[in-house]
Request: fold
Amino acid sequence: MNLAKLVRPNILQLNPYSCARDEFKGEASVYLDANENPMNAPYNRYPDPMQWALKEKISQMKSVRSEQIMLGNGSDEPIDLVVRIFCEPQVDNIVAIDPSYGMYQVCADVNNVEYRKVLLNADYSLDAQRVLDAVDANTKIIFLCSPNNPTGNLLNRSEMLKIVNGFGGIVVIDEAYVDFSSEESWLADLDKYSNIVVLQTFSKAWGLASVRCGMAFASEEIISYFNKVKYPYNINILTQNFVSENLDLEVRKNDWVEMLLVQRTQLSNELQTLPFVEKIFPTDANFLLVKVPDANAVYQYLVDLGIIVRNRNTVSLCLGCLRITVGTAEENKTLLDALKKIG
Ligand SMILES: *Cc1c(COP(=O)(O)O)cnc(C)c1O
Reply:
């Protein structure tokens, strides 16, 4: 793959901002180069623009090289950057599965890039050929999300592979829910496929949604373009340090995942017994997609009781569907008790 041919010409030629911490990286005793206030240590100093200490820890945990990692303000930042790096506004286009995560289209729209939606099958499975049929000479990116949001299911790996192998552009594989999934991450194959960008996040299994830290993994060459385009100090020092400390608590994260998977099964079993529940879709994520006859009515009934689920009634292929995040045993019981009172 000739990456330089995929990148927008202005990004290829871009002279990135060179900050003080880019020009001098080592240890020194006196720092008078960045117009910082000498008082209020350690917060007076600009943070490491490349977050090497944090990336080093992530690289060990994920068995990738630090240079294959880009950290963003949530996954939303790399989603936006990948559009801006590869898609010329009003010229290039993006192909994505439908339904899927809403941010892909928002980022395409913000950047004035055509967004082509390809319906999943009725059972939310992926038809690779239908996706590839939507591609033309100006398609730069295909977005795949597995496990998918809001449907919850894993996309079939061999179908995904047909797209990775059959498309000459960038395939973004969003693995926000990978920790809850029974299948292995695509990270294991990062060196095998030079055109994939794998997204993961600290927002779900790690319980750090408010901290805003997402990860993009790709070839060193793709990551170098992310680094050219991102804000120099995009991850503040509080986030860098806090995420780094949390990485030492992987056992706690795994315990949470285990608890949530138990709760997911239990919640699913209980919902199944409710007479008005038509279908609970298979899930590999920390939520259930549940089909009922009147999703708007059930949604409003729950809101009035202070219980908020996500109404997906108007989303493609999701007519009558509510997306229910798995909570604690108590939260799930509160939900179930409320639903059992529906006549
Ligand atoms: C929740 C979610 C994310 C995470 O977004 P952050 O910006 O990292 O919080 C990414 N992708 C999908 C599909 C999600 O559902």
Observations:
- The chain has a mean pLDDT of 97.
- The pocket of pyridoxal-5'-phosphate is lined by residues 74-76, 101, 145, 149, 174, 176, 201, 203-204, 209, 214 (CB under 6 Å).
- The first strand starts at residue 69 and ends at 72.
- The first helix runs from residue 3 to 6.
